[in-house]
Amino acid sequence: MIVRQHPRFHASFSGTLIHRRERHAISKSHDLSRRGCRVQSTCPAFTGMKVDLLLTLPDRKTPIVIQGAVVRWSGSEGIGIEFPSLVSPHQELLEGVIQQLEARVLRGKHFAPISGRA
């Protein structure tokens, strides 16, 4: 069993994955944590690839900008992306979203944190 440092939560968001100045739409989001996410995209991702992300979350006018994220794995289950340290105000935006997801779990109105692949 993999022990995670930060729990992942089911999350629905849209966005853009940018690699070498090429933009690829995020076609589906699977989960989100303080340090990463899992998404589907047409981008031909490979382990170790560096990408920038623009994550657009529901009810948020400002996208979360994540620069220098790293693809940790890719396959039929999506693309696992790890976030580096985020800069303000994007760190605060992400933290606010994660706190809302955690609160929904505690209220029983959303899926519980998920475990699995790193």
Structure description:
By secondary structure, this protein is α+β, with helices and mostly antiparallel strands. The chain has one domain (9-105): Beta Barrel (Thrombin, subunit H). 15% of the residues lie in helices and 42% in strands. The protein has one helix and seven strands; from the N terminus they run βββββββα. The chain has one helix at residues 90-107, and strands at residues 9-10, 14-19, 22-32, 36-41, 50-56, 64-75, 78-82. Strands 2-3-4-7-6-5 form a six-stranded antiparallel barrel. The radius of gyration is 13 Å and the shape is globular.
- The helix/strand class is alpha+beta
- Using the CA coordinates, give the radius of gyration: 13 Å
Which residue ranges are poorly predicted, with pLDDT under 50 across at least 5 consecutive positions?
Answer: 112-118
Number of strands: 7
Q: How many structural domains does the protein architecture include?
A: 1
CATH architecture heading: Beta Barrel
CATH class: Mainly Beta
Mean pLDDT: 87
Number of helices: 1
Remind me, CATH topology?
A: Thrombin, subunit H
Strand order of the largest sheet: 2-3-4-7-6-5
Straight-line N-to-C gap? 10 Å
